[in-house]
Write a structure and sequence with these properties.
The protein is mainly beta. It has one domain (about 5-15, about 25-325): 5 Propeller (Tachylectin-2, Chain A). About 0% of the residues lie in helices and about 45% in strands. The strands form five sheets. Strands 1, 2, 3, 21, 22 and 23 form a six-stranded antiparallel β-sheet that branches. It has a five-stranded mixed β-sheet with strand order 12-13-14-15-19, with no helix packed on it. A four-stranded antiparallel β-sheet has the order 4-5-6-7, with no helix packed on it. A hairpin with a 5-residue loop joins strand 4 and strand 5. The longest helix is centred in the N-terminal third of the chain and has 4 residues, at about 5. About 45% of the residues are buried. This is Esterase-like activity of phytase family protein. Keywords: Signal.
Length: about 325
């Protein structure tokens, strides 16, 4: 869900209006390196260690509204979905010390619905993305569903099929649906099954609806919601644990984000899952409207966590990408 829907009406007039590159062509991007994340230059936060980051802008107004990011196995090429109904593909660049230094090969393409037609905002409000062999899974809100696209080929194709959802349709909220879709490791307790977690579709106890979509453990579970945080994305670690990215906002306290670690063995039908907080950051830190999270294999043999923000096409917000190393 875009933060501007509930917080940025007063600054809507500040949105960019700028040239657009043709679909499928590299779009220009200006990048600056982020060397400092926390007050005082702190880099260690429990099990997480800040490695570096990027801030990026483009005269192409389509480079906005990032909802989710997934990296290819090489840890460089990535795919994102935008809640404006677009695909974004690209590649990260690193300096001689292995730190994030730039972005390249960026391309933005409109998402298509059944029949190959280009969708509208209502039917392509993409929020979550997961990649698995030959497929790209996308979760949508407004018209709640998880569609499966061919990979490669998603840029020019409509969905191959729609996955059945264990969560009752009546439980989905208009702008609080399936914010996260992720595929579990094949060696984990979920045996490669995808899961979804909603942003603000809550049960009568205030827990977030979630579900395992396939396999012998298919069914609904819940994730404890700690007000005022809402889920925005998440990804599995190699051991089957799940990292959940969450965001909060109010005019009094501003923006905040945190990452929770949910135990993989706790995710099963009927469970109510909670987990330890690995990182909690407010506006004193280098954050913005953090929307996407993925886990890649670092060259040091440890999982690296990459998170990205959504600037909502608003000039007082920023597109940023941050990288952390997980030391446990």
């Amino acid at each position: 869900m875009k933060l501007s829907r509930f917080a940025l009406c007063a600054v809507a007039a500040l949105c960019f209006a700028s040239p657009v590159a043709p679909a499928g062509e590299d779009i220009p991007v200006q990048v600056s390196v982020i060397n400092r994340f926390a007050p005082g230059g702190q880099t260690r936060f429990g099990d997480l260690e800040f490695l570096g980051g990027l801030q990026f802008t483009s005269p192409d107004r389509r480079l906005q509204s990032l909802s989710s990011i997934r990296f290819r196995r090489d840890g460089e090429r990535f795919v994102s979905v935008l809640d404006t109904g677009h695909w974004l593909t690209g590649r990260i660049r690193r300096d001689g010390e292995g730190r994030l230094s730039g972005l390249g090969e960026l391309s933005v393409d409109p998402m298509r619905i059944r029949g190959g037609r280009i969708g509208t905002k209502y039917n392509t409000d993409a929020e979550g993305l997961a990649l698995r062999d030959g497929e790209a899974l996308v979760s949508f809100e407004q018209l709640h569903r998880v569609d499966v696209y061919p990979d490669p080929g998603f840029e020019a194709s409509g969905p191959l099929r729609t996955l059945p959802l264990p969560i009752p349709r009546r439980e989905f909220r208009m702008n609080g649906g399936m914010e996260t879709v992720a595929v579990s490791p094949k060696e984990s307790p979920l045996r490669g099954a995808p899961i979804v977690i909603t942003e603000e579709s809550l049960d009568d106890k205030g827990n977030m609806f979630a579900a395992v979509l396939e396999g012998p453990l298919k069914g609904v579970f819940k994730v404890v919601r700690h007000d005022p945080y809402n889920a925005t994305d998440g990804a599995f670690l190699p051991n089957g644990d799940f990292l959940l990215l969450e965001r909060r906002f109010s005019f009094l306290t501003g923006l905040g984000m945190r990452i929770r670690r949910l135990k993989g063995e706790d995710i099963r039908p009927g469970a109510v899952v909670d987990g330890e907080v690995l990182l909690d950051a407010d506006m004193r830190y280098t954050i913005d409207n953090m929307e996407g999270l993925d886990v890649i294999a670092g060259p040091d043999g440890r999982p690296h966590v990459i998170i990205v923000s959504d600037d909502n096409g608003n000039m007082i917000q920023r597109n940023i990408m941050l990288e952390f190393r997980l030391n446990r």
